[in-house]
Amino acid sequence: MSPTRGTAASIAPPPPTPHRPRGGRFGALADWAQRHRWAALLLWVAVLAAVTLGSGAAGSAYKNDFSLPGTDSQAATDLFKEHGSAQAGDSVEIVLKDSQGIDGRKAAVERMLAEVKGLAGVADVRSPYTEASAVSKDGTIGYATVTLDGKAEAVPKEDVTAIIDTAKGVEADGLQVELGGDAVRGAEDKGSPTAELAGILAAVIILGLLFGSVVAAAVPLITALFAVGAAVGLIVLASHVFTIADFTPPITMLVGLGVGVDYALLIFYRFRHELTDGVEPAEAGRKALDAAGRTVFFAGCTVIIALLGLVALGLGSLQGVALALALTVLTTMAASLVLLPALLALFGRRIQRHVLKHAARSTAKGKVEGRRWRALAAAVQRRPLPALLVAVLALLALSAPALSMRLGFADAGNDPRTTTSRQAYDLLAEGFGPGFNGPLIVLVQGDEAAGQGVRSELAKAEGVATASPAMPSEDGALSTVFIYPKSAPQDEGTTDLVHHLRDDVAPRLERDTGAEILVGGSVAASQDFADTVAQRLPLFVAVVVGMSSLLLMLVFRSVWIPVKAALLNLLSISAALGAMTLVFQYGWFGVQQGPIEAFLPVLIFAIVFGLSMDYEVFLVSRIHEEWERTKDHSLAVREGLATTGKVITAAGAIMIVVFGAFMLSPDRMLQQFGLGLAVAILVDVLVIRCLIVPAVLQLLGKRAWWLPAPLARRLPKVALESPRES
Predict the structure, then answer these.
(1) What is the per-residue pLDDT for 192?
(2) Cα end-to-end distance, the chain, whole Å
């Protein structure tokens, strides 16, 4: 994109210097796609149809894998299975409430429980009428425990739905029946795809406002929709080969939509500028792909590298999500580089007429594109240090709450109040105390006497409300004790209790009894997951930042550019995590308080770090192009922002509204994910790219492009963006 001509003298761009035309592989790819436009379009239609039909026929095989080898909770689960304990599987609670007392409903409830016991996926059923501890003190609330034959994520949803329907069938006047447990939460209806539809609508509106033409707005959106459709089908097929979590589809759809529109927009905007300079549509398409296509390819590679960096964490549940998102980004890149040029060839003449008409009106009114961005850059350059300090201090203040971020997992207490899982949660807390919804399962590897002795000591531990009798396994080698905390599952007190039992109580009891003791259960497993993420996060950050910085060094042949990019990307991510902490952990804006989902910080880091590199590459490559052409550093910064500010802002706005659409989801995890991504992109586009980057580059001056001579000789030269042809 060339600088716009005709601005005020103080910030005017230089006259163009003629360049000898040169092409590249991306230009050649665009040339092929334009000459064979119908073949390219039919190819994408065939790919979309094939993967859609194939995925529909194969069906999905999503599976949540939260296993953590080497942790106490996983060791407990493995021992449960090895010794035939009924607690090897997760459980479903059937909660009953009758203000007149549940004893009067015994006959009907027992018949229902007998039916449930015969259903698929059920290993055992314990009636509230055989255990006094399963009925509240006033006799109005009780619960039956349905032990499943596997972990919640492994039990088919239709089996869980059958349990829900059978239990609900006994409801009558005065008797309320609700069901709780992870399996029930997973089987409940998640609602309509409001977020996806809102994201698409927002993208259409922003593109329409940006280009003022239905056809021009439709081209980037069509490209993104083709890419997302193909990616979703491929992910469904991949779920039969890889472990991909069931919460992956909505994430990939919205990320794919945002990234797809983003990439197509960057190329399309360059195409539009070439048309404004009087280039014919076919040649404009080739030039746009030869220049901006390189940027899109490099930016996409950085996103994929960041996502695949999740493999370094060694967490199975995140590896599948990373693979799905990387596949989505790869598909959007392919659509931008092949499908988009074909669409430009089909609609090029119509777009050209609109662009030239709009340019003529702007010229008649004396408007110069990029004038305001050029003025903003000049203002920052006049006082770079104050602009830098104010922006950085503001972001550090927003980042500060992230230092107290508490990782964990949402439970039924965060579900909508209309769901049966939330109502069961509330009834159990009402009848038995807040800690009843998150029991710790303590495994005692020893005889029954050892189990009873451990149970009596655990019941005395600080923070424990009560402890169940020790239950022996089928072979008698293990005993299981349920520990009910005084605090709710998500409370910090429960987290402290897990660590207290493991670090202080269990070692002492092991010395006294000679039995091996493990603290497990879903609450302990959540804490293990959070602790594992925190321990491995430095390695993950080092891998992602290191590889991305190396790529930037290759492209821009500079030491300070990748250092600046890494630090600023980390700043935008920390600001996003701080905003998430304020809203979801501290309950700002009336949001229910609770921990931040344990895997979200690393997932947001991978996505945002990659996407921030998109804007970094797009902006700095234009600045670098002007620097190479004029060797005037201040002018290069102004022209880089002037020619990219509008498109970066538009692309960022699309990302923000698409990711912000997650806030419309009833799922707390998706709400956190959407807020984190939206805040990160908002900060990156408005604060970092518009204020901090121009200020830093102005302060660095020519040193911004410094590369030690020995390193310069050894590094291969990578051309990112071709100079404009005039």
Answers:
(1) 53
(2) 11
Q: How far apart are CA 151 and CA 157, in angstroms?
A: 12
Rounded Cα–Cα distance for residues 699 and 498 (Å): 50
Residue 180, strand partner residues:
93
**d(C-alpha 109, C-alpha 163), whole Å:** 13
> How far is Cα 319 from Cα 39, in angstroms, rounded to an integer?
36
651-697: pLDDT as tens digits: 888 889 888 888 888 788 889 999 999 999 999 999 998 899 999 99
Tokens 């997932």 belong to residue = 603
Stretch (H or E) spanning 517: strand 516-520
Find out whether 470 and 517 touch, Cβ atoms under 8 Å. no
**Residue 91: what are its φ and ψ, rounded to 5°?**
-130, 160
User: pLDDT (tens digit, 9 = 90+) per residue, 541-559?
Assistant: 888 888 888 888 888 888 9
Phi-psi bin for 241: left (phi > 0), alpha (psi -120 to 50), beta?
Answer: alpha
Question: By three-state DSSP, how is residue 697 classified?
Answer: helix
Please tell me the distance from the alpha carbon of residue 260 to that of residue 254, in angstroms, as a whole number.
10
What mean pLDDT comes out for the span 574-586?
95
Alpha-carbon gap, residue 323 to 41, rounded angstroms: 27
Kindly give the pairing relationship between strand 407-408 and strand 596-597.
parallel
Cα four-point dihedral sign 569, 641, 686, 702: positive
Predicted local confidence at residue 356, as pLDDT: 85
Give the 3-state secondary structure of residue 484: strand
Q: What are phi and psi of 24, to 5 degrees?
A: -150, -170
Work out the number of other CB atoms within 10 angstroms of the CB of residue 159.
17
For 516: left if phi > 0, alpha if psi spans -120 to 50, otherwise beta; the answer is beta
d(C-alpha 393, C-alpha 168), whole Å: 55
Task: Name the phi and psi angles at 355, rounded to 5.
Answer: -65, -45
**Token pair of 503 as six digits:** 């670090």
The residue whose two tokens read 């321990």 is: 535
Give the bridge partners for 625, in sequence order: none
> For residues 509, 512, 516 and 520, what is the CA-based torsion angle, rounded to 10 degrees?
-10
For residues 329 and 321, what is the distance between their CA atoms, to the nearest angstrom? 12
Helix (H) or strand (E) holding 684: none
Name the 3-class secondary structure at 606. helix
Which helix (H) or strand (E) element contains residue 146?
Answer: strand 141-148
Alpha carbon 641 to its chain's center:
29
